[in-house]
Design brief:
The protein has 14 helices and 23 strands. The protein has 4 domains: 90 residues, Rossmann fold; 56 residues, 2-Layer Sandwich (Dna Ligase, domain 1); 128 residues, ATP-grasp fold, B domain (D-amino Acid Aminotransferase, Chain A, domain 1); 100 residues, Glycinamide Ribonucleotide Synthetase, Chain A, domain 4 (Alpha-Beta Complex), CATH 3.90.600.10. By secondary structure, it is of the alpha+beta class. It binds adenosine monophosphate and glycine.
Length: 429
């Protein structure tokens, strides 16, 4: 088969690394890819959001199967356009991708089908949103309706913060069209967990558990990022909780989406808040988490490609996936100094090969890299490397990942030094 992966981050590197190992894959392309992905796939210089060019490329190269990594092309209808062109693709239609692309759509679906989530109001009028906030009081959460690159959510501890967030989104247009509408919702306390399922429109296959660290600094302090590290399995996800999430969220959502006329095919990523009463839905994403995908692919024993094809073909019910159950995977994100704020681009990175050669349990996925004309490896983004290790325990994987990081020579990079701390604490009792 000829396979095309769409995207350029660590998630897509992990997907390419897994798919390239599949005996079903004869030729792998990635658009646009990055310097690490170039070791697994032929990178083609087409942006992940350039839907017409991606469809043209897939047609002209007679691509058999397309795997879409990020949410933006999904929400823009890439899978719809590929399907119309007769090209099989893994990922939801634009209508189904509204689960991530519109917070209001997701909340209304939950309300209609009794899926537990924070109480909420939908607003396009700032005064009405503010009246609702004053009535409910702080803490309270303000969200832009559309895709805002992870920056559209304000968890407001005070009334003032919440009112300012409304002004930013609804009046000042900080998130553009994505913020023309908003959701204000109840603040939920507890521990966050993520659940990933591969779905074929009818059946959902829940994957191994994984957890990320969103805050930029040690101790889960500082502003939220796309994720500074992740590990799998997530010890908080015991069998009882996993069964509840499947029964109370994943299955009802699959049924609801089918009933609404937009059956869900692709990865369903549920972000949940768990307290003593149980889980509630914070958000749905319509793609693999990044960097959660990196630890999931590391722990996956089965060939991933047939599973993705089975999802696109609607035959997941005949399918199962096997995992390295006695292994933990942990990834640490190395980011450019300054991230998630402004950062310098084009700084040189050395030592990745040395770091990987020193420990066969280590794999460095590239999230934001490129090469200059002399072949030097350069950082091109905020999140740049995902240093990933397998181990017998979380502590073991963590030790290996940080030993690898210490072998990487990148003065302009930084990372958290405590990825997995909750899981290590649980492990050590
Ligand atoms: P979202 O993009 O909706 O997942 O929100 C980003 C992050 O904001 C989540 O991962 C949570 O840490 C936090 N968050 C979102 N909604 C709530 C809520 N209702 N209560 C508390 N924290 C929330
Ligand atoms: N790591 C969280 C996300 O991909 O949204």
């Amino acid at each position: 088969m000829k396979v095309l992966v769409v995207g350029s981050g660590g998630r897509e590197h992990a997907l390419c690394w897994s798919i390239a190992a599949s005996p079903l894959c004869d030729k792998l392309y990635c658009a646009p890819g990055n310097a690490g992905i170039a070791a697994e796939a032929e990178c083609v210089p087409i942006g992940a959001e350039d839907v017409p060019a991606l469809v043209d490329f897939a047609k002209s190269e007679a691509i058999d199967f397309v795997v879409v990594g990020p949410e933006a092309p999904l929400c823009a209808g890439l899978v719809d356009r590929l399907t119309e062109a007769g090209i099989k693709a893994f990922g939801p239609s634009a209508a189904a991708a509204q689960l991530e692309g519109s917070k209001g759509f997701m909340k209304d679906l939950c309300a209609k089908y009794d899926i537990p989530t924070a109480t909420y109001g939908r607003f396009s009028d700032a005064e009405a949103a503010k009246a609702y906030i004053r009535e409910k009081g702080a803490p309270i959460v303000v969200k832009a309706d559309g895709l805002a690159a992870g920056k559209g959510v304000t968890v407001a501890q005070t009334l003032d913060e919440a009112l300012t967030a409304v002004d930013d989104a609804l009046l000042d247009g900080r998130f553009g069209a994505a913020g023309a509408e908003g959701v204000v919702e109840e603040f939920l306390a507890g521990e966050e967990v993520s659940v990933f399922a591969i779905c074929d429109g009818k059946t959902a296959l829940v994957l191994a558990s994984a957890q990320d660290h969103k805050a930029v600094y040690d101790g889960d302090k500082g502003p939220n990022t796309g994720g500074m590290g992740a590990y799998s399995p997530a010890p908080v996800m015991d069998d009882d909780l996993a069964a509840r999430v499947e029964a109370e969220f994943i299955k009802p959502t699959m049924a609801a989406m089918a009933a609404e006329g937009c059956p869900y095919q692709g990865v369903l990523f549920a972000g949940l808040m768990v307290d003593e009463k149980g889980p509630k839905l914070l958000e749905y994403n319509v793609r693999f988490g990044d960097p959660e995908c990196q630890v999931l692919m590391t722990r996956l024993m089965s060939d991933v490609l047939p599973a993705l094809i089975a999802a696109a073909d609607g035959v997941l019910d005949t399918f199962d996936l096997r995992w390295y159950d006695d292994e933990v995977a942990l990834t640490v994100v190395m980011a450019s100094e300054g991230y998630p704020g402004d950062y310098e681009k084009g700084t040189e990175i050395k030592g990745i090969d040395t770091a990987m050669a020193a420990d066969e349990n280590v794999m460095v996925f590239h999230a934001g890299t490129g090469r200059d004309e002399t072949g030097k490896l350069l950082a091109t983004g905020g999140r740049v490397l995902n240093v990933t290790a397998r181990g017998a325990t979380v502590k073991d994987a963590q030790t290996r990942a940080y030993a690898a990081i210490d072998r990487i020579d990148w003065p302009k990079g930084f990372c958290r030094r405590d990825i997995g701390w909750r899981a290590v604490a649980r492990e050590e009792g």
